[in-house]
Amino acid sequence: MAGYLIAFVFGIFIMGALIAQRDKLGSGGFNAWLKGKKALLTTAALVVIAVALLVQALVTVQAGTVGVVKRLGAVRQEFNPGLHVIVPFIDHVVIFPTLKKTYEASETPQSSEADYPDIIITALTSDGQQIRVGMTARFMIAPGKAAWIIQNLGTEREYVEKVVKTEIRGSGRRVPTRFAAYDLYTKKSYEAQQALYDEIAPKFEKNGLVLDEIIIRNITFTPEYAKTLEEKQIALENITTEKNKLEQEKIRKEQKIVEAEGDAKSIEIRQAALTKNPTIIQWEFVQKLAPNVQWGIMPDKIIPVIDFKGMTGPQSPQK
Question: Is the pTM value of this prediction over 0.85?
Answer without folding.
Answer: no
